[in-house]
Specification:
Keywords: Cell membrane, Membrane, Transmembrane, Transmembrane helix. It is a multi-pass membrane protein. The chain is built from 14 helices and two strands; from the N terminus they run ααααααβααααβαααα. The chain is mainly α. It has a domain of 212 residues. It has a two-stranded antiparallel ribbon with strand order 1-2. It is globular.
Length: 333
């Protein structure tokens, strides 16, 4: 007679506890308080650096919608950034519009161009889509130089920066920082709401499995095109604010290297995460300068090695690494 062994008792499986949303809101409030407090404690140059981090974060937020959430690829995001910068600069230089009005106009112009480019791009994928977007970034610089009467040609356009109002008591660098902070906060709130909606679920379905998404009734062509348009709109808004902060635009500031750097910053920061663009903005702002300080002769080599090192330590980006570290923290039952 065959005797069956008695099964050993197993420990009950504990369900993973969902993070308390109150802690998330508390963390966001603490981060926002630190962002408001920072410009009063830092030197003007460091305030400028933080302002640029916010600008790059907004641009990367749009790129994240396209790459991280819709599953598309773009090597021409710097071109949309340049479109927004020049749209804002032309509105200020040629038509003397108030600064607040240039932001929605620049975003709208970039949205329309992204929508127009998204229609043919929706039929492509992978390497072919990457080459098309790369071509956009390549031909933009000579195109800007050709229309010299409008864009200033190779010399670019020099603009006055927004002056802080007398009632604010802020220095120019602090005022520009807070303007950029307001734009960044609104951009992140809109993106968070978009991703939690039906549109966000459709983008994720397209990213994960296009065939299954189409069977479920998701219109692939519409959402792919809109993803390009939304991505371009965020980049255009960031480019417009860049014009306010720098006070100067030139075609040589928007070469293909900018597009590649933005994509690298997003991958390092973390795809598909709202915190990824912020971490990517820090990477885009500070890593090139650190590379330049390490070795003036080969900053590109140092930059590339740092990217490889980060990808080796954190394959899912810095946001994914932070998430894994937080999960290892023991919690009280």
């Amino acid at each position: 007679m065959i005797q069956l062994k008695e099964a050993s008792p197993r420990a009950p499986v504990r369900a993973r506890r969902a993070p308390d949303p109150r802690w998330r809101w508390a963390g966001l409030a603490l981060l926002l308080a630190a962002a408001v407090y920072a410009p009063f404690q830092l030197a003007p140059f460091h305030v400028f650096q933080l302002t640029m981090v916010l600008i790059y974060s907004v641009a990367l937020l749009g790129l994240n919608l396209l790459v991280g959430h819709a599953g598309q690829i773009s090597l021409g995001h710097g071109a949309f950034f340049a479109v927004g910068a020049y749209a804002g600069a032309i509105m200020l230089d040629r038509y003397d519009l108030p600064y607040p009005l240039t932001l929605p106009i620049a975003a709208a112009v970039a949205f329309v161009i992204g929508l127009a480019l998204g229609v043919p791009a929706m039929r492509l994928r992978g390497l072919y889509l990457a080459l098309v977007t790369l071509a956009i970034a390549i031909f933009l610089v000579p195109l800007l130089k050709r229309f010299e009467e409008l864009t200033g040609g190779s010399m670019g356009l020099t603009l006055a920066k927004p002056a802080p109002p007398a009632w604010s008591g802020l220095a120019e660098d602090q005022w520009l920082y807070f303007l950029t902070l307001v734009v960044a906060v609104v951009a992140f709130l809109v993106a968070a709401g978009l991703l939690r909606s039906r549109v966000g679920r459709a983008l994720h379905a397209v990213r994960d499995n296009e065939t299954a998404a189409e069977v479920m009734g998701v219109r692939l062509s519409s959402y792919k095109t809109l993803a390009f348009a939304w991505s371009a709109m965020y980049a255009g808004a960031a480019g417009c604010v860049y014009t306010w902060v720098i006070g100067f635009v030139s075609p040589d500031s928007f070469t293909v290297n900018l597009s590649i750097t933005l994509l690298a910053g997003l991958v390092v920061g973390g795809l598909g995460s709202l915190s990824g663009p912020v971490l990517g903005g820090l990477f885009v702002m500070f890593v090139p300068s650190i590379s330049q300080d390490v070795n003036d002769a080969a900053p590109g080599v140092i930059f590339g090695l740092l990217i490889i090192a980060v990808m080796y330590v954190a394959p899912t980006g810095l946001a994914g690494l932070a998430g894994r570290l937080l999960k290892k923290i023991p919690r009280k039952e």
